[in-house]
Design brief:
The structure holds 2 protein chains of 2 kinds. By secondary structure, chain A is an alpha/beta fold. Chain A has 3 domains: 41-171 and 359-398, Periplasmic binding protein-like II (D-Maltodextrin-Binding Protein, domain 2); 173-354 and 417-427, Periplasmic binding protein-like II (D-Maltodextrin-Binding Protein, domain 2, 3-Layer(aba) Sandwich); 430-533. Chain A has helices at 2-39, 55-71, 84-97, 113-119, 124-127, 179-186, 195-212, 226-236, 239-244, 255-263, 272-285, 297-305, 319-325, 373-383, 386-396, 431-445, 451-494, 505-530, and strands spanning 44-50, 75-81, 103-105, 156-157, 162-163, 165-166, 173-178, 217-220, 309-315, 330-333, 364-366. In chain A, the strands form 3 sheets. Chain A has a 5-stranded mixed sheet, with helices on both faces. In chain A, strand 4 and strand 5 form a beta hairpin. Chain A is globular and about 70 Å long. Chain B contains 13 helices and no strands. In chain B, helix 1 runs parallel beside helix 3 and helix 2 packs antiparallel against helix 3. Chain B is elongated, with a radius of gyration of 26 Å. Classes of the chains: A alpha/beta, B mainly alpha. At the A-B interface, helix 4, helix 17 and helix 18 of A face helix 1, helix 3, helix 5, helix 7 and helix 9 of B.
């Protein structure tokens, strides 16, 4: 018995060792293979890292990389998929350790500007020239920058006065709707085009649920999803105010300009537009499950996927996973805002709202450590050529970023809509105002309290929160200003020039004017903050 | 004993060595300073500071001072040391580094000192502008002076006098870029402080018509500001011209739809006015 046990143990240990040896062999083979490939002087490897783990995106990147390799047999392109949760730590380690890939995706807050400046190199020298991979298309000869739907404004780093990235990503938000259920309830698949139609549909859903005893809500809601709709509704009420109270006319009206207009006395919480904004949010909230502000993103998704809600508002980034999960036909439509003729909520509205403030995001940044920066930029040109972006869009199911590229059929409803006028900003776009709203929103959304209850509580903290957010913005900008003052001097001096001196026009044009504008904005904000009210 | 050809060769070698010693003697500090500026431009401030401190010459002292201002964590001891270095350079009126030193001294008073010393900053800008007319740093100081003296709550008459004083400085500016930027600061201040479109518009127009290119993002905004100021002043032909310039220059801009709507309404107004 004992001998059988020891024999079994011997074979088990042997199997374990064999498994270990195989694993070691595979790992060694892979490492050696990569080292040999990297040591080959005739072969270039471009590596890029990103956090978009969605299946479609990964496949799209792979397809474009293989196309590029086919065109450039001496180049190998590798994508590194890093989970978002560990992303910042991973790239920081790689950058400091000197092992970073050539291209790294960064969001607006992934790294502070000092680190971006230290570890990455601008691509501005390349973006004014045409993209050679657009030859033979209608974009041939057009500057690379102008082939993007946002003119690469999303890639411009406002803190560093330069363009550091190229992005194949953009997103919009839409209301997703269960079409068979819509047909069952209304007899048609016509989706709402205005807030008035949205309310009529939602009331029909509530009536249907009450009549059939079915556990069904018009709209799934959560602390993640609800603001996507509610902020747009609030902003719709400020369209007219945004035109009248923005002396610099630099539309779309920024959240900062909105706050400064308050300090200048252009509006206050008693303005009909502001009151209507909150009243409209309250009105729309009745179509979401009670207590939606305590629900998480996944909860809202479950409501929609399990057909306990007819509609869900979320971004285009969720479309592939929602399509995989739902057994029903899906429709999408834009967040409905009131028409100018709406008896209660029409006065502040000029027209339907434009999505013209759309930007690309999460651009791929070129690292200073790249051994082949020109090849990396060339890959970016290829990735964002019209032909490749068409392919990327088709495989990923994401929105195109290049002019004239057609989205996948199921993505047509997500294409940005540039018709109309800009909404005003929402209160939730500044941290302290957002916190104040989060603390008091139960009074706005609860049927057991009134709009006046909410206003009384909100008003008590409003001025302090608004001033705190404005002060923070001015202080952050001041830090950027002082840092850049020195950087501008250094950039000129290293070229043997002086700011505004002979030969400096190319550098100066991009730097000093931006610095003056920033400085004037800071002083103006501080002046308004210091004024007695 | 060395033969004549060898002597000649030795003499030539000595000359060459002497020459290169001289060349290197001059270029080594310049190269070291240039390398230090490069480090500073890439925000490697501590390394840049070390490199400046090790280098000789007035430019290295200037570099050391400005690097101290960007060194983190920021300490008043570093700011004081920077002030000493800059004051010493600024005091040597004939030094080529004096205008830059005065400029950064003004910036130090305005942005780095705690508490800020705005009166000293304003005086330093004025002194720089008066002492070195046409110098690039004096040109830069005009916009900076405008920003601090115009963003103050003062009676309108006094504000207008300050504005006029600044406008009088513009003809002496040598740099077309600095002139364009000073005009944009003046126009922006007129709008921010008094919503005075009549005062702002000529400066927007001059900045746009100067032929000095603006970065794309800013050019778009200035075109729109000029168009809106013209529209609000009832100068419909000029508003139309700026909006049309915008649409022509940026046909794919995401604001295009809204701008085309404004254009259509302006064209209607223009047509009605001619009837």
């Amino acid at each position: 018995m004992k001998s059988a046990e020891s024999k079994f143990s011997f074979y088990l240990n042997g199997f374990g060792l064999l498994l270990l040896a195989i694993c070691f062999g595979i790992a060694a083979w892979r490492v050696m293979g990569r080292s040999v490939a990297e040591a080959d002087p005739d072969r270039i490897t471009i590596r890029f890292a990103h956090w978009q783990l969605e299946g479609g995106v990964r496949d799209a990147f792979n397809a474009i990389a293989r196309d590029y390799e086919a065109l450039h047999p001496n180049v190998r392109v590798e994508q590194l998929l890093i989970p978002e949760r560990y992303y910042t730590n991973w790239i920081t380690t790689q950058l400091i350790g000197g092992t970073a890939p050539d291209l790294i995706q960064l969001g607006n807050t992934t790294l502070d500007p000092a680190r971006v400046a230290r570890f990455f190199t601008p691509v501005s020298h390349a973006i004014s020239a045409p993209n050679p991979y657009n030859v033979g298309t209608d974009l041939e000869g057009r500057p690379w920058r102008d082939t993007f739907i946002d003119g690469m404004e999303g890639a411009y780093n406002i803190d560093l006065f330069d363009t550091y990235s190229v992005s194949p990503f953009t997103t919009t938000v839409r209301v997703y709707i269960n079409l068979p259920l819509l047909r069952l309830i209304t007899g048609s698949t016509q989706t709402p085009r205005t807030y008035e139609e949205f309310v009529a549909l939602s009331e029909k859903v509530q009536e249907f649920a009450a009549r059939t005893g079915r556990n069904l809500h018009p709209l799934a809601g959560s602390r993640y999803n609800a603001p996507m709709l509610l902020d747009q509704l609030f902003g719709s009420q400020l369209q007219r105010l945004a035109r009248d109270a923005n002396p610099l006319q630099d539309f779309p009206w920024s959240p900062e300009a909105f706050r400064l207009a308050y300090l200048e006395g252009h509006w206050n919480l008693d303005n009909p537009e502001i009151r209507n904004g909150f009243a409209l949010m309250r009105d729309a909230s009745r179509f979401m499950p009670r207590g939606f502000t305590q629900l998480e993103r996944d909860d809202a998704m479950f409501y929609f996927v399990q057909q306990r809600a007819l509609m869900l508002m979320t971004g285009s980034w969720d479309v592939t996973s929602i399509r995989q999960q739902v057994p029903f036909e899906l429709g999408v439509f834009r967040a409905p805002i009131p028409t100018p003729g709406h008896p209660q909520f029409g006065a502040g509205v000029i027209a339907r709202n434009s999505e013209g403030d759309l930007r690309t995001y999460g651009g791929l940044h070129l690292t200073r450590l790249s051994r082949n920066p020109e090849a990396a930029i060339d890959f970016l040109r290829f990735l964002t050529s019209k032909t490749s972006n068409q392919k990327f869009t088709r495989i990923s199911g994401w929105l195109p970023v290049i002019h004239g590229v057609e989205p996948a059929e199921f993505m047509r409803g997500f294409m940005p809509d540039f018709e109309g006028v800009f909404n005003g900003p929402a209160f939730t776009q500044a941290p302290d105002l957002q916190r104040l709203f989060a603390n008091q929103q139960h009074l706005l959304f609860s049927p057991n309290s009134t709009l006046e209850d909410f206003f009384a509580a909100y008003r008590a903290g409003f001025e302090t929160a608004l001033r705190s957010d404005t002060t923070r913005t001015a202080n952050n900008r001041s830090r950027t200003l002082t840092r850049n003052d020195i950087t501008i001097e250094a950039l000129h001096r290293r070229e043997g020039l002086a700011p505004y001196g002979p030969g400096s026009s190319e550098l100066t044009a991009d730097l000093l004017e931006a610095q003056n504008d920033l400085e004037a904005r800071i002083l103006h904000a501080r002046l308004l903050l210091a004024r007695p009210r | 004993m060395l033969r004549p050809p060898s002597l000649l060769r030795a003499a030539l070698l000595a000359c060459a060595l002497g020459h290169w010693t001289l060349v290197l003697g001059h270029s080594a500090p310049a190269a070291a300073t240039s390398a230090a500026w490069d480090l500073l431009s890439r925000l490697q401030t501590a390394d840049a500071l070390g490199a400046f401190a090790a280098a000789e010459g007035e430019e290295a002292r200037l570099g050391e001072a400005v690097a101290l201002l960007n060194l983190q964590p920021k300490t008043q001891a570093n700011v004081r040391r920077a002030e000493e270095l800059l004051s010493a350079l600024a005091g040597r009126a004939e030094s080529p580094q004096a205008p830059a030193a005065r400029y950064h001294l003004a910036r130090l008073f305005q942005l780095h000192a705690s508490p800020a010393r705005p009166a000293e900053a304003e005086a330093a800008y004025r002194e720089l502008i008066a002492s070195y007319p046409g110098n690039p740093y004096a040109d830069a100081a005009i916009a900076k002076l405008a920003i601090i003296v115009l963003h103050q709550d003062i009676p309108r008459a006094e504000w207008d006098a300050r504005f006029a004083e600044l406008v009088a400085l513009l003809p002496d500016m040598a740099s077309p870029e600095a002139l364009r930027d000073a005009r944009l600061v003046l126009a922006g201040a007129a709008l921010r402080m008094h919503a005075d479109h009549a005062l702002a518009l000529p400066f927007f127009i001059a900045a746009l018509e100067s032929g000095v290119p603006l970065r794309v993002n800013r050019h778009k905004i200035v075109l729109l500001q000029a168009a809106e100021s013209a529209r609000l002043l009832g100068d419909i032909p000029r508003a139309l011209a700026f909006y049309e310039d915008f649409v022509r220059a940026y046909p794919f801009d995401v604001r295009g739809h809204e701008i085309r709507q404004v254009l259509a309404s302006l064209r209607q107004s223009a047509a009605a006015a001619t009837r």
